[in-house]
Protein backbone atom coordinates (compact mmCIF):
# COMPACT_ATOMS: atom_id res chain seq x y z
CA UNK A 1 0.00 0.00 0.00
CA UNK A 2 3.01 2.29 0.48
CA UNK A 3 3.79 2.35 -3.24
CA UNK A 4 0.15 3.22 -4.02
CA UNK A 5 0.33 6.03 -1.45
CA UNK A 6 3.37 7.45 -3.26
CA UNK A 7 1.54 7.33 -6.59
CA UNK A 8 -1.44 9.12 -5.03
CA UNK A 9 0.90 11.76 -3.56
CA UNK A 10 2.29 12.33 -7.05
CA UNK A 11 -1.21 12.63 -8.56
CA UNK A 12 -2.29 15.20 -5.99
CA UNK A 13 0.97 17.17 -6.29
CA UNK A 14 0.49 17.42 -10.08
CA UNK A 15 -3.10 18.60 -9.62
CA UNK A 16 -4.59 15.52 -11.28
CA UNK A 17 -8.07 14.26 -10.42
CA UNK A 18 -8.03 10.72 -8.94
CA UNK A 19 -10.72 8.24 -9.94
CA UNK A 20 -11.39 4.58 -9.11
CA UNK A 21 -12.90 1.96 -11.41
CA UNK A 22 -13.65 -1.71 -10.80
CA UNK A 23 -14.74 -4.75 -12.76
CA UNK A 24 -15.38 -8.27 -11.55
CA UNK A 25 -14.27 -9.78 -14.86
CA UNK A 26 -11.45 -7.39 -15.71
CA UNK A 27 -12.32 -7.57 -19.39
CA UNK A 28 -11.05 -4.86 -21.68
CA UNK A 29 -10.81 -5.75 -25.35
CA UNK A 30 -11.02 -3.97 -28.64
CA UNK A 31 -13.27 -5.19 -31.41
CA UNK A 32 -13.68 -3.09 -34.51
CA UNK A 33 -17.22 -1.95 -35.07
CA UNK A 34 -18.71 0.49 -37.51
CA UNK A 35 -21.65 1.26 -35.27
CA UNK A 36 -21.43 4.83 -33.88
CA UNK A 37 -21.36 5.01 -30.10
CA UNK A 38 -20.47 1.32 -29.69
CA UNK A 39 -17.91 0.82 -26.93
CA UNK A 40 -16.98 -2.82 -26.57
CA UNK A 41 -15.77 -3.52 -23.04
CA UNK A 42 -13.61 -0.43 -22.90
CA UNK A 43 -14.83 1.00 -19.62
CA UNK A 44 -15.09 -0.40 -16.14
CA UNK A 45 -17.67 0.66 -13.57
CA UNK A 46 -16.88 3.93 -11.84
CA UNK A 47 -16.54 3.81 -8.04
CA UNK A 48 -18.53 6.82 -6.89
CA UNK A 49 -17.54 10.04 -8.70
CA UNK A 50 -14.07 11.27 -9.68
CA UNK A 51 -12.48 12.96 -6.66
CA UNK A 52 -12.68 16.55 -7.90
CA UNK A 53 -10.85 19.00 -5.64
CA UNK A 54 -9.18 16.26 -3.60
CA UNK A 55 -6.04 17.60 -1.91
CA UNK A 56 -5.59 14.92 0.75
CA UNK A 57 -4.04 11.63 -0.41
CA UNK A 58 -5.51 9.82 2.61
CA UNK A 59 -9.00 10.41 1.19
CA UNK A 60 -8.04 8.50 -1.96
CA UNK A 61 -6.50 5.68 0.06
CA UNK A 62 -9.68 5.48 2.16
CA UNK A 63 -11.80 5.18 -1.00
CA UNK A 64 -9.50 2.42 -2.26
CA UNK A 65 -9.99 0.47 0.97
CA UNK A 66 -13.78 0.94 0.84
CA UNK A 67 -13.88 -0.28 -2.75
CA UNK A 68 -11.79 -3.33 -1.82
CA UNK A 69 -14.17 -4.16 1.04
CA UNK A 70 -17.30 -3.85 -1.10
CA UNK A 71 -15.79 -5.66 -4.12
CA UNK A 72 -13.20 -8.10 -2.75
CA UNK A 73 -13.30 -10.25 -5.91
CA UNK A 74 -12.97 -7.46 -8.43
CA UNK A 75 -10.17 -5.87 -10.35
CA UNK A 76 -9.70 -2.30 -9.14
CA UNK A 77 -7.73 0.37 -10.93
CA UNK A 78 -6.76 3.91 -10.06
CA UNK A 79 -6.81 6.56 -12.75
CA UNK A 80 -5.93 10.22 -12.82
CA UNK A 81 -7.13 12.94 -15.14
CA UNK A 82 -5.66 16.30 -16.07
CA UNK A 83 -8.54 18.73 -16.36
CA UNK A 84 -6.38 21.29 -18.20
CA UNK A 85 -5.31 18.98 -21.01
CA UNK A 86 -8.56 17.01 -20.69
CA UNK A 87 -6.91 13.61 -20.78
CA UNK A 88 -6.14 10.58 -18.66
CA UNK A 89 -2.59 10.81 -17.33
CA UNK A 90 -2.12 7.72 -15.19
CA UNK A 91 -3.81 4.35 -14.84
CA UNK A 92 -2.79 1.20 -13.01
CA UNK A 93 -4.42 -1.84 -11.45
CA UNK A 94 -4.26 -1.84 -7.66
CA UNK A 95 -6.12 -5.10 -7.02
CA UNK A 96 -6.04 -8.20 -9.18
CA UNK A 97 -7.73 -11.01 -7.26
CA UNK A 98 -6.99 -14.64 -7.94
CA UNK A 99 -10.66 -15.58 -7.55
CA UNK A 100 -11.95 -13.15 -10.21
CA UNK A 101 -13.54 -14.53 -13.36
CA UNK A 102 -11.17 -14.68 -16.31
CA UNK A 103 -12.57 -13.19 -19.51
CA UNK A 104 -12.60 -15.32 -22.64
CA UNK A 105 -10.52 -13.67 -25.33
TrEMBL record:
Question: Biological process (GO) annotations?
Answer: photorespiration; reductive pentose-phosphate cycle
Q: Which UniProt keywords apply?
A: Calvin cycle, Carbon dioxide fixation, Chloroplast, Photorespiration, Photosynthesis, Plastid
Superkingdom per UniProt:
Eukaryota
Say what the protein does.
RuBisCO catalyzes two reactions: the carboxylation of D-ribulose 1,5-bisphosphate, the primary event in carbon dioxide fixation, as well as the oxidative fragmentation of the pentose substrate. Both reactions occur simultaneously and in competition at the same active site. Although the small subunit is not catalytic it is essential for maximal activity.
Record-stated family: Belongs to the RuBisCO small chain family.
Q: How does it assemble?
A: Heterohexadecamer of 8 large and 8 small subunits.
- Name of the protein this chain belongs to: Ribulose bisphosphate carboxylase small subunit
Amino acid sequence: MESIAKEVDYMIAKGYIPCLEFDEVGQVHRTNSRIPGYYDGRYWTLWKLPMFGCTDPSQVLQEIEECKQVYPNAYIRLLSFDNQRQCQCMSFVIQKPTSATVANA
